[in-house]
Structures are given as structure tokens and as C-alpha cells.
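Weekly sync, protein design subgroup
Attendees: M.S., D.O., the rotation student, P.L. (late)

Item 1: inverse folding check
M.S. brought a backbone from last month's batch and wanted to see whether the design step gives back something sensible before we order anything. D.O. pointed out we never logged the input encoding, so this time it goes straight into the notes. C-alpha cells as presented (312 positions):
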């Protein structure tokens, strides 16, 4: 379908005429841009409890923010990894998304401030995310959570990290995970899918921008083929937790997210896939402006409630 008119207005705000592309910026400038653009995201709602913590990790302490909704515990827990191409996002840029998910899903959300590239390249950000899941499993009670009901999720680069966390947790005999939420995940460093070429320019995230992200995240050429960087290239996806995969019609990452959902199904993993038409990469957090964002947020929350065995 055509680009949603509301999304067109947002796109003009995200990328005004004459704006330089992400791939033309220095990292510091791109991070400042991400902070400005994050103000277009919905602010979310108040939560019953919010706490900033520092938890131990293999490369030093990791900041996390804990969002707890109303309700008697112990509550299930979603460990969330923010987007931003492994380079420019933060706990703050995704604060509203985590607030909304905590309320709608009726779960605690632990947002992970993993180390960013290029200062910390693959697999260091992933190491932080795996460590955060392990910490939650071992300390859920201390934050009002249920250690037997843990899910992981993320958007874009955060979706990539969620897929890789599931692979590592499976292979390293980590905690049992109830579900994985993958919102337009990056799953292949090749950036050569049909949607990467079809929507290479003009829809906020560009193919050149995605290559810029990958080049900052991966330190060695051989890392591009590693299953923990490009999970679409993993040889074995059996035994992973059920997944909810969200894609956007006008998104370079659309096809690789949908291909990953199909690979999960082929491996016997339950995977629900929904493509939201008329919208662009980044739409998920824009619930104040886009009906599709509200629908997607509700879909994700419903998937989590089903996975956790809770009622709306």
C-alpha cells in the first residue's frame, strides 16, 4: 500500500530537505541526532516503580533501568535491548517504549544499556546483553520478578541482539526463555536483500546508513558470517524460544526479518510474523502519531501475556 500520510509527515520531520545522511556523519554527531529524533517517540506512561541499577558484566558494570507496572508480584520480566544500530541508541531514547510495554504487557521491563560500537565492537555489546539476562535470571526476585518467566526483545539492532542472546543462551545452557520479541530485526550483515535494494533510500533508514552501522559494529570481515552477528546465517535454529516478529513495509530490514521468521518456522520454532503496511523503520515507538505503532505495541504485549500465561 502507499506510505501512510501520517508517516509521510513524520518522515519529513525525521529527514528534512537537505539533511545529511547518517553515513555522512561522525559518530558523536549521529548520537546527538538520535537524541533529537527520539523526541518524536511517544513518552509512554508513568509506571509504578522505576529504578536505575548497575549490574556486573564481563567488561565492567552495565547500566539497566527497571520498569515495574502496577500489580502484585512476582511479575514476569522482559529484558529489552534498544535499537540504534549498536552505535547511537540508549536507555533514554527508548524510555517511552519500555514504559508502554511494561503497562500493556503487565510485566517488569529491564532495559539494558549495553556498550556501544565503535568503542566496543562485536561481541562486546552482545556479551553485555547475555550477562544482563543471566543477572535477571539470578536476581529476578530482588526486582519483584519471576525467574521462571523471562523473555527477551528489542528493535532493529536490539532485535539482532535478542536473536543472538537466544542462540547463546541455548548453546551455553543459560536460563529458559519464554519468548523473543523481534521488532524489525537486523539479521544479515550482507545488506543485499530485496527490500535493502528496493528501499535503499528515501525512508529514514537507508542501506548506506545500515552499512555504516555494520561497519562500526563489526571489527573483522569474518565477523559478518558469524551466527551471533548475522543470525540469518546460523546453521541451526532449533530449540529457540517462540518468537513474535514485527516488520515494516517501507524498511530496508523488512525482508531479512521475515526471512528469519521463516527460518525459525523451518526449524520447528513457533514464530508469529506481522508486516505493518504503510510505515517505515522506527515506527514502533511512535504510538502518539501512528495507529500502526499502537497496533504493533498491543500485538507485542498480547504475545508476551500469552507467553507468560497472564491475563489482560
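Designed sequence read out in the meeting:
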Amino acid at each position: 500500500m502507499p506510505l501512510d500520510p501520517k508517516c509521510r509527515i513524520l518522515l519529513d520531520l525525521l529527514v528534512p530537505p537537505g539533511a545529511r545522511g547518517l553515513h555522512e556523519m561522525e559518530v558523536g554527531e549521529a548520537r546527538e541526532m538520535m537524541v533529537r529524533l527520539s523526541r518524536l517517540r511517544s513518552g509512554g506512561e508513568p509506571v509504578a516503580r522505576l529504578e536505575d541499577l548497575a549490574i556486573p558484566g564481563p567488561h565492567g558494570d552495565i547500566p539497566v533501568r527497571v520498569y515495574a507496572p502496577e500489580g502484585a508480584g512476582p511479575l514476569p520480566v522482559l529484558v529489552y535491548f534498544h535499537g540504534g544500530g549498536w552505535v547511537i541508541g540508549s536507555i533514554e531514547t527508548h524510555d517511552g517504549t519500555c514504559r508502554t510495554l511494561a503497562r500493556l504487557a503487565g510485566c517488569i521491563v529491564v532495559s539494558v544499556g549495553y556498550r556501544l560500537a565503535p568503542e566496543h565492537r562485536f561481541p562486546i555489546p552482545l556479551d553485555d546483553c547475555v550477562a544482563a539476562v543471566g543477572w535477571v535470571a539470578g536476581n529476578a526476585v530482588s526486582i519483584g520478578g519471576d525467574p521462571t518467566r523471562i523473555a527477551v526483545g528489542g528493535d532493529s539492532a536490539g532485535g539482532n541482539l535478542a536473536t543472538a542472546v537466544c542462540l547463546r543462551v541455548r548453546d551455553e545452557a543459560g536460563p529458559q526463555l519464554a519468548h523473543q520479541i523481534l521488532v524489525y530485526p537486523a539479521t544479515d550483515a550482507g545488506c543485499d536483500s530485496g527490500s535493502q535494494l528496493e528501499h535503499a533510500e528515501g525512508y529514514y533508514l537507508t542501506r548506506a546508513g545500515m552499512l555504516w552501522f555494520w561497519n562500526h559494529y563489526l571489527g573483522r570481515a569474518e565477523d559478518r558470517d558469524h551466527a551471533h552477528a548475522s543470525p540469518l546465517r546460523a546453521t541451526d535454529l532449533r530449540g529457540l524460544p517462540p518468537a513474535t516478529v514485527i516488520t515494516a513495509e517501507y524498511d530496508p530490514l523488512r525482508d531479512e526479518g521475515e526471512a528469519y521468521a521463516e527460518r525459525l518456522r523451518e526449524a520447528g520454532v513457533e514464530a508469529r510474523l506481522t508486516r505493518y503496511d504503510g510505515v517505515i523503520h522506527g515506527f514502533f515507538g511512535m504510538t502518539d502519531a501512528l495507529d500502526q505503532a499502537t497496533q504493533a505495541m498491543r500485538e507485542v504485549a498480547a504475545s508476551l501475556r500469552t507467553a507468560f500465561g497472564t491475563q489482560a
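Discussion: Residues 291-308 form the longest helix (18 residues). The longest strand covers residues 145-155.
Action: P.L. to compare against the previous round before Friday.
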